[in-house]
Amino acid sequence: MSQPTLLVADDHPLFRAAMLHVLRERFTQYATLEAASAAAVSSTLQAHPQVELVLLDLTMPGVRGFSTLLHVRGEYPHIPVAIISSNDHPRVIRRAQQFGAAGFIPKSASGQDIADAVAAVLDGGSWFPPMAAERSQADADLAARLAQLTPQQFRVLLCLADGLLNKQIAHELGLAENTVKVHVTAILKKLGCYTRTQAAVLVKSLENDQEA
Fold this sequence. Notes:
Blueprint: E1 5-9, H1 13-26, E2 31-35, H2 38-47, E3 51-57, H3 67-75, E4 81-85, H4 90-98, E5 103-106, H5 111-122, H6 137-147, H7 151-161, H8 166-173, H9 177-191, H10 196-204
Parallel strand pairs: 1-2, 1-3, 3-4, 4-5
Helix pairs in contact: 1-5, 3-7, 7-8, 7-9, 7-10, 8-9
Keywords: DNA-binding, Phosphoprotein
Domain HTH luxR-type: 142-207
InterPro entries: CheY-like_superfamily, EvgA-like, NreC/VraR/RcsB-like_REC, Sig_transdc_resp-reg_C-effctor, Sig_transdc_resp-reg_receiver, Tscrpt_reg_LuxR_C
């Protein structure tokens, strides 16, 4: 049986190395992997089904706010995701929680706090810093609407948000153009949108607009 594994997804080599050091010292029974982009997260999870926790930065290349969190949660619902971020604004922490994160670890956290957070999530619990932000009904509604999408539909939605045409999306995702049209119709219906532009605006709202 493959060794259970922790995936650190962050594009800063020094911080990634620091995280890996903490994990290897505290969680000796786990192997570790690293990724520096959203694309690398996807390919790593596909290649390594033994991953049991993703530690995910919000500002890597290819990451659009909380889109990668939602994508991983949709495609791999059995794998918990803990956000690691230098932006620990209460609103950002609350949004991470509402969009399905099992934890939120500020990059300013001590090694002990990082280890405690990871341990809590691996034990099936959660770990978040104290939050002053109120739960947002708008975010709850958005999360519920996005949760209706299949993983493939979510990938198509992200392409829509980048302004790609159906033909371009088909090429990007290796799909038939007619299949893309079917997905787009389903996406708009599930999200309650009338146009591609409205759907793109929803994706835009996943981005972090709060200053730390």
